[in-house]
Design a protein that fits this description.
This protein has about 160 residues and is mainly α. It is elongated and about 55 Å long. The two termini are about 20 Å apart. The mean pLDDT is about 95.
Length: about 160
Amino acid sequence: GLVDSPRAVADAVVALTREGGWRVGLGIGDVEEPLPDSTRAARGTAYLAAREALAAARSSATALALRTVGTDDYRADEVADAEAALRLVRAVLARRTGEGWQIVDLYDEGLTGAQAAQRLGISPSAVSQRLRRAAHDEVGAGERLARRLLARAAGATP
């Protein structure tokens, strides 16, 4: 896939982690335009970096890697920092249970704790416990950090 924002990258990592079984290789770079009908036919440094990242993801404990090609040491450090943030988010999400995803989904729909408790037939304190076990706040903070770091690594706006 091809995305053009740090938010889209973080969203894709969350979705693929939830789905399970995906190895994620992310590349930062330029893309030649006009875009072809197929990403396989596309060209540019982003694709070269993504191929390198996918190969690196094979040996990663989180099955995720982020790469760029032809950058200076400073930018390479920024890419490594963004990769670290995404790997941490992915590691936390991989431990989330079905109940955790369920409660997070309800919060993402805009329900309050009391409304979620009523819908699930559980107590409000059980909702709070599930949110804590799901690391809802920590994942949100990690995603925000990852987006900022991705933007810096790519020279974009979060």
